[in-house]
Amino acid sequence: MKILGISAGHHCCGITLIDNGKIIFSLEEERHNRTKVYKDFYSNVFRAPFLSLKEATDKLGFNINDIDYITSYYPKKESEMIWDTLKTGLPFPENKFIFVDHHDSHAATAYYLSGFDEDTLVVTMDASGGKYSAKYFIGSGGNLKFIDGLGLKNKSFGHYYAMLTEFLGFKRLKDEGKVVGMAGHGKHELIAYQSFNDAIKIEGIHTDKDDSGVLFGQVYLDFYTSYYKRIGSRIYLGSKQDLAYNGQLVFEEKIVQLLTNLHNQYPNVKKIALAGGVFANVKLNKRINEQYWVNEAFIAPPMGDEGCALGCALMVHKMFNPDFKPFKLNDVFMGTSYTDDEVGDQYWDINKFSRELFTPEKAAKYLANGKIIGVFNGRYEHGPRALGNRSIIGEVTNPETYDKINNKLQRNDFMPFAPAVMEEHANTIFKVDKSAYTAQFMTMLYDTRPEWSDKIPTVVHPKDKTARIQIVTPKSNPTFYKILDEYNKITGVPVLLNTSFNVHEEPIVCHPNEAFTHLENDVVDLLIINNFIYKKYEGNIN
Ligand SMILES: [Fe+2]
User: Is the pLDDT of residue 358 over 60?
Assistant: First the structure.
């Protein structure tokens, strides 16, 4: 049974096809139309995954006539509009359309991709979606049982973090990750802490009421009222880092308090599966993972609304297959890909770039010599993290590498780059004593062991010594694993820097021409595409 999930709207949009429970593809529109999500949010454009559908049809053999069901978190009327926008040439499939609640779709990605066979606390949190900003479930025996949640009359943690992001002078829905990095540089400051503390309160398993009726909620009003009252002025003379630190701290404390209250109602449930934009916060996820009552945590790799197409499809699959149970993902390489012939014939400008056969040994040697490599291998990743198929990789021991790559990418994230580490060395270098599966998808911070933190400065936070690790296994990404292995043989360091293959404010590369442009502009020194390493003629690399 073929089920097409559709995400659309002002946020992320895309499509997912599953066939008898197998994920066939997940495409994200921003990769194909090359416009970052937040830009359309601010211009209030309603987006449908038109190019994703076209790419699926042109490149992945998808035929819209073959689908048995389509599903979305938009009700029928809006979904009809999306269907029209998609220009399928077919009438809206009335009897094939199944609506899935927005937060139920987040819950499906959290629970069904977790592989957990024990009872699981499943929690979704975002700014808002449908009639909720959070939902809680117990996942048991493959079934999701709704417990409770935060309706639109409760304060939203997504709004809280958007408020914090804006207060620091950043853009909400875009710069939240910068706030997380910045928070690691700050310290406790009482007025800021108390003001954030006044903005959102926990009452059992709920937040306090939002009676404002304004778009971004009571949380904004309460914070600003409290803050200006305490400081007696609209000018804050403290550091932004301290504000970020205290805002993040309160955010973590409140969510952990709510989750602990929830856990106390189900004390035997010790696994937790999480999805929704709030859990893009890797520092929060670390804090949750460290709770004494959590045996294992899992965060859906496409935790934001980009994952809702997959979530809807999984929910519909479950409706027709009562025995369907959580399973483990091998990887998230669910996007489009290009063969060497396609790249050679259509994208490689032979007058500008030479190429040689790729081997992991050669790549490792270049990396050990300080070269920065763009990797464009196989299918692209589903979700916000590049996990070695649309990544920029580099060495991790030279502190200058951090500035070098930051400059090339015009990046100012306050966040160190992420380390990719070979599976068998992960716990030697980082404290990965639980939740190692979720670390394959780079969704959580871990502490670095003291004997390693100074050895790998480009990928460890300079102050709190945390790292947003990606565990690489021989199965999850064989090519990346082999490069790491060869690099380890040369240097004795089984870790490489991994950051997404994009420059400032652009989506991650999707088509080979974008990768070649970055090679031409010296964003990367070398480019690996499948079985070849490309370089500029004038690059004089050796
Ligand atoms: Fe959402």
Answer: yes
* Domain co-membership, 262 together with 142: yes
* Domain ranges, residue 72: 2-99
What is the CA(5)–ligand 1 centre distance, in A?
A: 15
CA 232 / ligand 1 centre spacing (Å): 37
Alpha-carbon dihedral angle through residues 90, 92, 93, 98, given to the nearest 10 degrees: 140
Distances (CA, A) of 34 to 57, 100, 379, 505, 510: 19, 28, 17, 10, 8
> How far is 382 from 386, CA to CA, in rounded Å?
9
Q: Give which of 326, 324, 272, 335 is closest to 302, Cα–Cα.
A: 335
* CA of 493 relative to ligand 1 center, distance in Å: 38
CA distance 182 to 240: 8
Instruction: Tell how far CA 338 is from the center of its chain.
Output: 23
Ligand 1 geometric centre to CA of 276 (Å):
5
CA–centroid distance, 104 to ligand 1, in Å, is: 10
Residues in the chain: 542
**Domains in the chain: how many in total?**
3
Residue 192 C-alpha to ligand 1 middle, in angstroms? 28
pLDDT tens, residue by residue, 137-153: 999 999 999 999 999 99
Q: Say whether both 88 and 181 belong to one domain.
A: no
CA of 303 to the centre of ligand 1 (A): 8
**Domain membership flag for residue 310:** no
Question: What is the per-residue pLDDT across 244-301, written as a single tens digit (0 to 9) for each?
Answer: 999 999 999 999 999 999 999 999 999 999 999 999 999 999 999 999 999 999 999 9
Q: What distance in angstroms lies between residue 273's CA and the mean position of ligand 1's atoms?
A: 15
C-alpha 257 – ligand 1 centre gap (Å): 22
Residues 410 and 518 in one domain: yes
More confident residue, 330 or 13: 330
pLDDT the model gives residue 408: 86
Q: How far is the CA of 380 from the centre of ligand 1 (A)?
A: 22
Phi, psi of 413, rounded to the nearest 5 degrees: -95, -5
Q: Quick: pLDDT tens for 506-516.
A: 899 999 999 99
Strands (E) in 8-141, as ranges, are 14-19, 22-28, 69-72, 97-99, 120-129, 132-140
